[in-house]
Amino acid sequence: METKHEKVLILDFGGQYSQLIARRVRECNVYCELLPYTTPVEKIEDGGYKGIIFSGGPNSIYDENSPKCDEKVFELGIPVLGICYGAQLMAHILGGKVSSSEIKEYGKTDVEFNLSSLLFHQAQQKNVCWMSHTDYISEVPHGFKVTAISDNCPVAAMEDIKRYFFAVQFHPEVNHTVEGMLYLRNFLYNACGCTADWKMSSFVEDTVAKLREQIGDKKVFCALSGGVDSSVAAVLVHRAVGKQLTCVFVDHGLLRKDEGDSVEKVFKEQFDMNLIRVNAQERFLSKLYGVTDPNEKRKIIGEEFIRVFEDEAKKLGQIDFLCQGTIYPDVVESGVGDAAAIKPHHNVGALPENIGFEGIIEPLRYLFKDEVRKAGLELGIPEFLVWRQPFPGPGLAIRIIGDITDQKLAILREADAIMREEFANNGLDKTTHQYFTVLTNIRSVGVMGDGRTYDNTIALRAVTTDDFMTADWARIPYDVLEKISNRIINEVKGVNRIVYDITSKPPATIEWE
Ligand code: XMP
Predict the structure, then answer these.
(1) Burial of 346 (0-12, 13-18, 19+ CB in 10 A)
(2) Ligand 1 atom closest to 389 (CA)
(3) Which residue range is the domain that position 358 belongs to?
(4) Which of 8, 24, 18 is nearest to 180 (CA)?
(5) pTM for this one?
């Protein structure tokens, strides 16, 4: 679905912050797209972009295979902002000089600005910026002037105001750059002339109209997991075509306490959707019987999901479209080195394209997660669903170490519910990005009253993270940990020991399996 909003291009040179730049631009209410540096200049020209941002990247421009875009990008008459490696590349291509330094300039750095620069309009003359580079621009190209310096960087920023080319050695997109958003806004609004027309309310309206046109009087099928993405996608389609949409929600018996009921309630009662809840607990649990290997568990659950959906789709007869909650980070191609190699987990709810649908509908394909949440709120989806922490497709199966039994599921469900309740009571649900309990397969000795026990150990896991690729263990106050521990021991039969996981990712993963 093409956007009618004005847009900016972020050309990705493999930097770890490329997606962050895109999110920041969207936060400035400007729609943007992220494309690899190899994108042909003709495609860029056809894209109708109002500005181009070159991301950073891990290379030195003198590396043999360092990423370089088509130099004709500078002949399109479009304003360009180069960031870090992107700044050096601009200097290099346009005839300046990039040199290598003995020492890396890394971290928070004091930078002094020339406030007559359009980029630093209304900024403070001195401020802290985030630097991470070894190479630096030692001579600016013809037509450029230096607009910021730091102790170790003779060109912390430069510009050619005639051609609207700007470059910054630091990272405006990183929070540590105190006025980074101001510099970005100056580029977007003052250099590119963007009017900030990217708003969630208009996204929802436009998308609903386009979906109506695309779907016409045909039928749509959606696999609803109750997670944010599939919920928002389904509600958008439902707003467009109402009962032409049928959602299937599979209860595989590995959900958290009351989860199935609450999802059913929201979508059936509040939204009056055609929702089929498939109670497939037996089907999944019998297949999982005795299985201990985590990947085997994932595989079984993933395959069984597809079988269940196929069965349901068959029952419904002719279905024309499949709706999926794919979001932008799932689809952007970096096309560059490591950043491309790190892929999120395969979503087990995803259906193969060959199960007989005419087309796929992905209304969130161009949204970042925070935008999906905003769209969800705009659509009236309850906050508890919109702000829900991620829950893996294989559910509690990968939080029970070893084989899965009804009894273990019951223990884990109760323990998990207590942890979630206490997190909510203490406001930690807003600040901790993922938190859950794990049923370890350790039994240990304890004493309760006068008797000796030999029972299960529950591990508590809570992390803070920006992207789930890396994570830090959450510093939960001791009294909250104590409360959770006491409650689980007292309220959940079969547990006599609680431990708190204090490993970050890496080296550990967030889940235990
Ligand atoms: P890890 O454990 O790899 O998890 O640090 C990173 C994020 O991915 C989630 N996760 C999964 N999600 N299917 C999913 O849909 C899976 O098999 C799966 N494994 C992990 C995990 O909960 C965390 O948010």
Answers:
(1) exposed
(2) 24
(3) 200-386
(4) 24
(5) 0.84
> Which atom of ligand 1 sits closest to the CA of residue 509?
5
* Digit-coded pLDDT (tens) for 77-134: 999 999 999 999 999 999 999 999 888 889 999 999 999 999 999 999 999 999 999 9
Distance CA 396, CA 359 (A): 32
Mean pLDDT on 478-499: 98
- Of 191, 214, 231, the last residue of a domain is 191
Q: Is residue 152 part of a domain?
A: yes
Q: CA nearest 371: which of 9, 52, 32?
A: 32
Domain's final residue, options 167, 191, 215: 191
Helix ranges (DSSP H) in 242-293: 259-265, 281-288
Task: Give catalytic status of residue 84 as yes or no.
Answer: yes
| pLDDT at position 1 | 54
Q: In whole angstroms, how large is the CA radius of gyration of the chain?
A: 26
Contact partners, residue 349, CB within 8 Å, separation at least 6: 223, 225, 230, 305, 393
Bond into 507 cis (ω within 30):
yes
Same domain membership, residue 57 and residue 186: yes
Strand partners, 221: 246, 322
- Hunting for tokens 């979508």 — which residue is that? 267
260 pocket-lining for ligand 1 (C-beta < 6 Å): no
Ligand 1 contact, 298 CB (< 6 A): yes
d(CA 317, CA 376): 30
Atom of ligand 1 nearest to the CA of 471: 5
**Which residue is catalytic, options 84, 192, 194, 323?**
84
For residues 187 and 204, membership in a common domain is answered with no
Closest residue CA from atom 24 of ligand 1? 390
Is 380's C-beta closer than 6 angstroms to any atom of ligand 1?
no
